[in-house]
Amino acid sequence: MRLLRLGLSLLIMIVLNSVPSESAVSSIDLGSDWLKVAVVNLKPGQTPISIAINEMSKRKTPALVAFQSETRLLGEEAAGITARYPDKVYSHLRDMLGKTYEQVKEFLDAMYLPFDVVEDSRGAVAFRIEDESGNVSLYSVEELLGMILGFAGDLAEFHSKVVVKDAVVSVPAYFGQAERRGLVQAAQLAGINVLSLINEHSGAALQYGIDKDFSNGSRYVVFYDMGASSSYAALVYFSAYSAKEFGKTVSVNQFQVKDVRWDPELGGRSMELRLVEFFADEFNKQVGNGIDVKKSPKAMAKLKKQVKRTKEILSANTMAPISVESLYDDRDFRSTITREKFEELCGDLWDRSLVPIKEVLQHSGLKVDEIYAVELIGGATRVPKLQAKLQEFLGKNGLDKHLDADEAIVLGSSLHAANLSDGIKLNRKLGMVDGSSYGLVVELDGPDLQKDESTRQLLVPRMKKLPSKMFRSIILKKDFEVSLAYESNLLPPGVTSPVFARYAVSGLTDASEKYSSRNLSSPIKANLHFSLTRSGILSLDRVDAVIEISEWVEVPKKNLTVENTTTTSPNITLESDKNTTEESDVNFNSDGVNENLSNNIVEGPSTTELATEKKLKKRTFRVPLKIVEKTVGPGMPLSKEYLAEAKRKLEELNKKDAERRRTAELKNNLEGYIYSTKEKLETSEEFEKISTADERKSFIEKLDEVQEWLYTDGEDATAKEFEERLDSLKAIGDPVFFRYKELSARPTAIKVARKYPGELQQIVKGWETKKPWLPKDRVDEVMGDADKLKSWLDEKEAEQKKATGFSTPVFTSEEVYLKVFTLQEKVASVNRIPKPKPKKNESETSSNNTNNADSTSGETPEKEKQTTDSNGSADEKTNPDGSAYDEL
Ligand SMILES: *[C@@H]1O[C@H](CO)[C@@H](O)[C@H](O)[C@H]1NC(C)=O
Ligand SMILES: *[C@@H]1O[C@H](CO)[C@@H](O)[C@H](O)[C@H]1NC(C)=O
Ligand SMILES: *[C@@H]1O[C@H](CO)[C@@H](O)[C@H](O)[C@H]1NC(C)=O
Ligand SMILES: *[C@@H]1O[C@H](CO)[C@@H](O)[C@H](O)[C@H]1NC(C)=O
Ligand SMILES: *[C@@H]1O[C@H](CO)[C@@H](O)[C@H](O)[C@H]1NC(C)=O
Ligand SMILES: *[C@@H]1O[C@H](CO)[C@@H](O)[C@H](O)[C@H]1NC(C)=O
Ligand SMILES: *[C@@H]1O[C@H](CO)[C@@H](O)[C@H](O)[C@H]1NC(C)=O
Ligand SMILES: *[C@@H]1O[C@H](CO)[C@@H](O)[C@H](O)[C@H]1NC(C)=O
Ligand SMILES: *[C@@H]1O[C@H](CO)[C@@H](O)[C@H](O)[C@H]1NC(C)=O
């Protein structure tokens, strides 16, 4: 019921785009381990906001990509081979964005991940992937992530059955500039248009607030999220303000993120690793002989997989078993662990888990009891000890678990996506104000510059509202460099140098020289324009040189009434700079032209009376300067060329994937056909009536033959080969199945046909009394046709009786239906012949006035009226101003 209302309301809310099917947008919650996708889709009959489930009907998908013998696998398929090929299934890619090679290497070792990695030219990591023929390809983190995001996009499209290009992607608050830019590039590679990145806590806050009203009271809510790899606490203030809308005062709900604090390395994974280490040690002890299972990546992959399950079991039970078949060296591993032991193994993590929430409170100056609620999200918050620890800290103020721990972020993010898209209007409004996770500074450097307060300035204070535009102006004459950096007191995890972007700005030296001889009314300045996007990415967008000049110029006297003087306005020759824009005066000339000024004012009878005066003119020139990004290091964005090449590679892989899927599907079809056909032939007695024993035998032989091929040579056959074989089998099977179908269909059709002439007689009888005007010849014609139908049936039935059931049927049920239908149509058209009207002028006039120009003189008036009616009302019901909107 509620869902239905939701569906209706959103549907009505659409401000109908010309192409409604393009109004689907998605949100992607890209976690360290998992991927969740939600779709906002306005297609009738679908839930407006829903989770896109994967091919295994799961609501979350492993964020994995694997390469195995020429095949790329994604999601569940990749997860399926993790234990066998731990070196080929790439995981935790999100956490490697913007990191140096060394950092990633260290991380991989700690996680027992045996990936083959090398350092790329940026100093970031590149994955070495070798195919069966020994060809090596290198993939960046962005490329592999692009594949995963592309898969997320496919899920969205498969789920909604429409093209979904726009998406909001959620990121952890601690993501720095390099991570955010890298993720956007990865999405770009996948062909996804990122409407915006959204901080995870904002997604959760949106989901929390969308169905609440804060006009009766504002509140502070803390969102505590512990996911697979990290945790954070975000303090969010929900309130309402009054606004005028269509002249009415309405209350608008909103939230503002006040603060967010995190631990980028504390997550469910930290606990799992403790278990892994514990069990590995136990196994080593069980086996003895100095065996170290930790040295075997395969064994560790198996162990890690089982440990996840053990941890889950421990959330609900006080004891959990672990069992891994042939963990190492064909030895099975079996053990148990108590919850108590688990909690002891993670002893130091419990206090650490409180740190983000403590920090958030401390920095806000709020006391625990001023917090309205602490909402838990993220899979790892299901761990009982963690909840107990939080509970203990919060005292009587309990924990709230109103939100879906797994899906709150992706669902909330989808609301943001809908809000940002053009085609969708949400009736329920919730204003969102999030801020920059980091304080950001700008630093200028150049030959002319003395380092002081003016060359290093705070540009974005921490938690500054997203999006924002910033402007800085500095007195400067020479080309210079701009660096953007984090405030040094808080850096993103793993970042060692605060500078995250560098730009070389040029053109200022030239501009200064060019104007140096002029009467400058103020020193030359550089104006810098920055933007901090909704995604939290800061960039230098534009730099202008600003040159202000005051000069005396001679101008014709204003009120000189020289009638026939052609005051040729001198050519505007702005020296070399085409891009120079002049603000104050179009009449500006270069010096050379200025000298000729008097000569240029020419001729005509009144030349002699020409008078000029001197005026002090103030002009401002803005010269756009050239900006070249020179960022270096692992956070350096991929070049245009690299991106183009990567995109090509990715599309190639997608094509191969599609081909592989098609092959699998065709193979499946062939298998299915063989199986079901054999079963039918062997079990249904009806087939004996329509096929000879020989025929069946040879067909089954043929089926067996192809089946044999399927499991031998056909194992790795191409799509085409499967298709060809299926076609050849169908060539034999189709006529048989057709006869089989006709066996029952034909008698049914005949029954219908035989009944009709009787019905027709009744109709004709009715006409005689009710519609005496019907032309006799037309009535006779249909009666004649009915007789013809009867004799056709007699003839065909006799023929069919003579024929064997094994040959092609003499006639088909379809032919019978067609004949009956044709006759019925004819009867209907006779029935529609209108009563002739008395012939009068008046009636002619009125018939001329029929505005229904298309109608073929009233032949089908009723039918037409109906169709126009239904169309018309459909249009009318689309309420353009939306006053009938339901609430979401
Ligand atoms: C390696 O790849 C290149 C280009 O993709 C291809 O031309 C070449 O045949 C491959 N080599 C082998 C041994 O497959
Ligand atoms: C707001 O408070 C008033 C009075 O306390 C109550 O009648 C009203 O239902 C409340 N509105 C909401 C939206 O909670
Ligand atoms: C939706 O858009 C409006 C207008 O741009 C903005 O004020 C509001 O904060 C947005 N809300 C969300 C949840 O994106
Ligand atoms: C230069 O500009 C100042 C005003 O800024 C003006 O007073 C002065 O006359 C100008 N000098 C020349 C040579 O144009
Ligand atoms: C132009 O000059 C004449 C006298 O020369 C004066 O009467 C008139 O008001 C002036 N017009 C304007 C618009 O200044
Ligand atoms: C300018 O003078 C020419 C002849 O010299 C004359 O033909 C023309 O009409 C004049 N134009 C105006 C606007 O007075
Ligand atoms: C403007 O420039 C064009 C071409 O450079 C030239 O033909 C023309 O005479 C110039 N006009 C004036 C008023 O200088
Ligand atoms: C002005 O500069 C921009 C980039 O700096 C360039 O794309 C544009 O073509 C230039 N315009 C002209 C008229 O030179
Ligand atoms: C009716 O329409 C025909 C052609 O459509 C026209 O020739 C005739 O004059 C019209 N008669 C009247 C009464 O409008």
From TrEMBL:
The leader peptide range reads 1-23
Q: Where is the composition biased (Polar residues)?
A: 586-601
Source domain of life is Eukaryota
The family note in this entry says:
Belongs to the heat shock protein 70 (TC 1.A.33) family. HSP110/SSE subfamily.
InterPro entries with a match to the protein in the record: ATPase_NBD, Heat_shock_70_CS, HSP70_C_sf, HSP70_peptide-bd_sf, Hsp_70_fam
Annotated segments matching region Disordered: 568-602, 829-888
- Annotated coiled-coil segments of the chain: 636-663
GO MF, one example: ATP-dependent protein folding chaperone
Q: What compartments host this protein?
A: Endoplasmic reticulum lumen
Protein name, per record = Heat shock 70 kDa protein 17
Q: Pfam families this protein is in?
A: HSP70
User: Would you tell me the Gene Ontology cellular component terms?
Assistant: endoplasmic reticulum chaperone complex; endoplasmic reticulum lumen
Keyword Flavoprotein tagged: no
Keywords, A to Z? ATP-binding, Chaperone, Coiled coil, Endoplasmic reticulum, Nucleotide-binding, Signal
Q: Name one GO biological process term.
A: endoplasmic reticulum unfolded protein response
Originating organism: Salix purpurea (Purple osier willow)
